[in-house]
Amino acid sequence: MSKRILVTGAGGFIGHHLVKHLTSQGYWVRGVDLKRPEYEPTTAHDFQLLDLRRWDNCLQATAGIDEVYALAAEMGGIGFIESNKAVIVRDSTMINMHTIEAARVNGASRFLFTSSACVYPGYRQRDTNATPLKEEDAYPADAEDGYGWEKLYMERTCRHYREDFGLETRVARFHNIFGPLGTYDGGREKSPAAICRKLALVEDGGTIEVWGDGLQTRSYCYVADCVEAIFRLMNSDFPHPLNVGQDRLISINELVDMVAKIAGKKVHRTHDLTAPQGVRGRNSDNSKLREVLKWEPQVSLEEGIARTYEFICTQLEAAGRLPARDFARA
Ligand code: NAD
Description:
Elements: E1 4-8, H1 13-24, E2 28-33, E3 46-49, H2 55-62, E4 67-70, H3 78-81, H4 85-105, E5 110-116, H5 147-165, E6 168-174, E7 177-178, H6 191-201, E8 207-211, E9 217-218, E10 221-222, H7 223-234, E11 241-244, E12 250-251, H8 252-263, E13 268-272, H9 287-293, H10 301-318
Parallel strand pairs: 1-2, 1-4, 2-3, 4-5, 5-6, 6-11, 7-10, 8-13
Antiparallel strand pairs: 9-12
């Protein structure tokens, strides 16, 4: 019989893409979330609207399941995570502890936890040159306040469950995942989507606001690569935390220039130096990813951003916030 897979957070950005990938591979998938996917219907065989902070709901979600991909979380861009620490820590701790324990009680064999590059210490991320972060750099610990500490604690919980209970746990540390079908407005969006939205809405020659001086650096990974990576990680024998990201470093200003080029617009920037910016520089060291997964992310930043920009323009047109393009004349 084929494996029965649970994806939590299946109404969210990465969870929805993961469900599509797994069902296209022929797996039976149950999706669970507080909400359905926003932009298109789920392909899950069974989709349950459940609050996973609750123990009884976690037991229901994991019943009859072989493998759990745990993606449900209180989540957002830097503006959200810097101003909602108690909510993030409370809700994600309840979701994760109840989900992993219910998976164990119900006899699941594997559990993949989606951690974050926010577990890496602040003292290694003070420079825009951003020495790529290796997995072992997470200690001595000084994680992102709130969100990062909860992720780091849950990574250790996964190790304890593997060592003491024999549950095969896997841990993926995501570095800025982006792509179509992600949140692009409303306060939880992350930098690539926010910049695409601003470029879509500004007129040619206009001005957009950038958070910080724009010299802060990041790496960005396209969502299809992220999904492929966690599928490979789940099916590997590697039980330790693994970076899942791209290793191309780019500043926010360079990202704005890239989106402007894709949009075919020339824009000016103003910089809000009081806005939340996160760490100064962060990049992923992908040596272990290549060794463990025998693979590395394939989609270039230009290609991924172009697809994301197109998705956001289409959404803005449908919402009446952008005039519909005249494809007949284009
Ligand atoms: P997302 O916000 O789109 O998805 C998370 C989903 O969890 C949402 O649909 C939300 O409704 C659901 N959820 C929240 N509380 C719930 C509850 N009580 N019960 C059931 N469902 C609940 O975020 P995403 O970008 O798809 O992230 C997925 C995972 O990857 C999260 O664990 C996140 O922390 C992690 N991650 C993402 C990134 C990134 O760049 N997107 C980076 C690092 C880590």
